[in-house]
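We were asked to recover a plausible sequence for a given structure. The inputs and outputs are reproduced exactly as logged, with field labels preserved.

PROBLEM: sequence recovery
POSITIONS: 310
GIVEN STRUCTURE:
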């Protein structure tokens, strides 16, 4: 496996591979974990040649966010990528990607509407940074299949939209979220959680399971579902809730009434570590009038999950 650091080497390696092989691309911000490994393994299973990119993109961090403290370990990343089946790792410097950095990039890619809700509302400019760096990587890579985790569901929706709108010769493939044995979604930020915060963070997945259970039992009031998830997360004193919501998976808008499958998304801070998570909920026709069960059965479910957490 090769490790390269320049754009010209990256382009040349993929152009050469494409002469006789199919190419898979796995863009990452490094500090690879089991979730990243699963993306690389899938890319390897579906392609003849796999390229992994490792680049902590400064454009997607806000002024008060954790760019300087974001975990980095290139040697570890290279070894994990090799074991998972990568053929090349592209690990550029900031100035290789943005020659005039830290001056602002004159050109940016922005995906309206999808970027303006949820994390986009909480982190202004974040998704412009994501779309810009992914557009650069797609332009460098050429015709590839690109693999992204569904844990970053909004990011995946934005990248799908961008690739279609700008006619990149890239097939964007979403892959299921990888979880720890206790349900916590795999994330590079998890290593920064204290033991207490790590335990507290389990409330996110429990809240998602609560919302999923309500919808799949027939609840079709999106506000009722959101409030149930919010209430459970707020029971955890260490969680600083950002949002808990139920959205259409294509538009990311909250439906007035749930009539089709939806995506449940949550975000919260634990000390200074911000975590996100999501699950799909398969809607079932309600057996009773929307919202009728929240004050009774749903509260019991929330209480039982809280007691389970201990």
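RECOVERED SEQUENCE:
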């Amino acid at each position: 496996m090769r490790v390269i650091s320049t754009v010209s080497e990256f382009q040349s390696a993929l152009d050469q591979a494409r002469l006789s092989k199919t190419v898979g691309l796995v863009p990452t911000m490094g500090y690879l974990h089991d979730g990243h490994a699963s993306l690389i393994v899938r890319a390897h299973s579906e392609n003849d040649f796999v390229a992994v990119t490792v680049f902590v993109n400064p454009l997607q961090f806000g002024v008060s966010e954790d760019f300087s403290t974001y975990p980095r370990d290139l040697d570890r990343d290279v070894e994990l990528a090799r074991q998972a089946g990568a053929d090349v790792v592209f690990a550029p410097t900031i100035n290789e990607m943005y020659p005039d950095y830290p001056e602002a990039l004159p050109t940016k890619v922005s995906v309206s509407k999808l970027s303006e809700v949820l994390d986009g509302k909480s982190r202004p400019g974040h998704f412009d940074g994501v779309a810009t760096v992914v557009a650069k990587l797609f332009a460098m890579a050429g015709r590839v299949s690109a693999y992204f985790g569904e844990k970053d569901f909004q990011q995946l929706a934005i990248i799908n939209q961008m690739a279609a709108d700008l006619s990149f010769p890239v097939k964007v493939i979403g892959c299921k979220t990888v979880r720890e044995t206790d349900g916590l979604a795999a994330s590079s930020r998890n290593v920064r959680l204290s033991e207490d915060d790590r335990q507290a963070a389990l409330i996110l997945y429990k809240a998602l399971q609560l919302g999923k259970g309500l919808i799949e039992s027939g609840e079709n009031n999106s506000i009722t579902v959101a409030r149930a998830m919010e209430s459970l997360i707020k029971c955890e004193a260490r969680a600083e809730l950002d949002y808990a919501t139920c959205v259409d998976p294509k538009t990311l808008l909250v439906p007035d009434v749930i009539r089709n499958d939806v995506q449940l998304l949550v975000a919260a801070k634990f000390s200074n570590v911000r975590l996100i998570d999501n699950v799909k909920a398969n809607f079932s026709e309600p057996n009773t009038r929307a919202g009728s069960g929240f004050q009774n059965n749903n509260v019991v479910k929330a209480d039982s999950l809280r007691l389970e957490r201990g």
